[in-house]
Protein: RecBCD enzyme subunit RecD
Amino acid sequence: MSTLPLFPEGQAGDAAATAPDGRDAMPPEQAHGTRRMSVLQELVKAGALRTLDHALAQSLRRLDPDTPDSVLAAAALASLAVASGHAGFDPAEPQRLVDAAIDWPTPEAWAAALEASRWVARPGAGDAESAADAPLVYEHGLVYLRRYREYERRLANGLRRIGRAVPHTGAAADDADDAQLPANLAPLFAQLFPEAATSDDPQSRAAAAALRHSLLLVTGGPGTGKTTTITRMLVLLAAQALEAGAAPPRIALAAPTGRAAERMAESVRNAVQALPALGVQPALCAQLPTTGTTLHRLLGTIPDSPRFRHHADNPLPFDVVVVDEASMIDLPLMAKLVEAVPDGARLVLLGDPDQLPSVEAGDVLAGILRAAEATAPTATFPARHVHLTRGYRQSAALDLAPLAAAVREGDTTSALSLLRGGELSGVHFHEGNADPLRSHREHLLAHWASLAEASDPAEALVRASRLRILTAVREGPQGARGLNARIEDMLAGTRRGAGLASAASRYFHGRLLLVTENSYRHRLFNGDIGICLRDDSGTLMAWFPGDDPRNPRPFHPAALPAHDSAFAMTVHKAQGSEFDEVWLVLPERYNRVLSRELVYTGITRARRMLHVAGSVDVIGMALERYARRWSGLGWRLGTCT
Ligand SMILES: Nc1ncnc2c1ncn2[C@@H]1O[C@H](COP(=O)(O)OP(=O)(O)OP(=O)(O)O)[C@@H](O)[C@H]1O
Structure:
């Protein structure tokens, strides 16, 4: 059997060398007169497949013309599933992926065809590698592209390895009570967590668990103290090493995007500054890291390669790896991260599980959490999970918590009555308003025009984060693309001496940019935001944040990786960022991407003021939908069915 060059890693979109010809051979089912059109043909006709998905099915058929139509369709759908955020495709619920009227095979017939196919591997056990010559894997009810099945398997194995190991520093992970601290740390613990003495304080529970366990999950909404807790936990680990006469722990702080890494480092610095007031010695505080890095930088990108310098055979040189915004990490990246964590090191994942899962194959954090919930710490998946619920960042200006809770729970009645009631400070509902660019033109335009007047690029980037339009969709009248085009026209009209003609020039002084692909060469990553401004010599450059926030890095606009404008951006792209004032603009009609996670993620990006523009019907439909993803991770971790 020939091995197919399917889906070069990280370049799924480029692999579509074959354009769909729309002429699918007559499927065996049709030859027997049972259906008029093959499932694959129906999918193509419905416009459900991407070129790449169809090309995969076509290559299988070229290699073996007898491949049943249902297997070809399953291959195309497994490919489409990854692009829709799933790890694999469930043939028992195809309408969850494609909601066109398709004459689907019965789950039984589909399963039988998959089981009999030469293209489909059926590994004997969840942790066994699947045969390299079969491009698909059918396992535990899901059809996977082999590569993604392998990522899932490697991730599960890696998590188990980390969780079972005895941490380098600290007490062994055993079944003793987490709250039982090493006696010599008790005084410091009491200083760090004064509330633990009088109440059941989940922050202190998380820190105590971290002393005993190598794999810790700390979750909670914005401002619930995840970073503060972890900073205090790191103090405990540093103190423990000091007492034992060991070297200080080597600690890495990382996040999936540069922006999130920066925010995390800033929160850690703030938390460290508060430590002396709690009586912590400055010498201990000095051992904590003050900078964060992206996961890509941590793992060491190799130019033009999806592989990293650090992996199982060249692990990261750290004893503790703390990763923020873990809900944004997709399956391939999480698998690579986990494999690069050395034996005996700790991995701490922080995140908000109610946010949107990663756009790419994911729901990884949710899968890990489900497994951690379902198991005792000594079982097959020894992870500790602490969920923080009390919000500490109560801004007097913005009373978001009640609305965020209603949205998170899908409680449409409460969410709408809170929005309409107008009593939450800082929250403004523009019911039925489909065009805030028109209704609030002056206010919005004044903000964008001010970017071009900043004294330097660093100041312009700070100003840029003061206001952002967030959209659910990219296309359509309420989509980021159309709004950006209109905003650019509006700005062109305001520029002195500039007629509309200058709107045609793509790059202009004050244009906000959003990078839409990872470029390891530029060290620019999907979601990074920059601004076009003229430098001292009058040359227009694109400025992006660097390691030092005071010194953004200039790039020639023509040399940038793929990018869009960023005056308006999708909620997906805004994950990990916060803005003083958020305008969440919802589409006029229901769209598949709407879900309660999307609305939750969108509204929780606001720091001081939130505007929601949309209809009651669309909000209601969004809150009814839960962005559940197909994943075998929970099952693979040995606990879920
Ligand atoms: N136990 C506590 N007592 C008082 N203030 C606290 C406590 N824990 C956290 N805070 C404060 O709450 C704010 C938010 O904390 P922190 O940044 O740790 O939250 P977070 O969950 O990491 O937030 P985000 O999700 O935005 O990253 C900070 O100002 C912090 O000082």
Summary: The mean pLDDT is 86. The pocket of adenosine-5'-triphosphate is lined by residues 203, 220, 222-228, 267, 392-393 (CB under 6 Å). The CA atoms of residues 446 and 491 lie 10 Å apart. The longest strand covers residues 606-614.
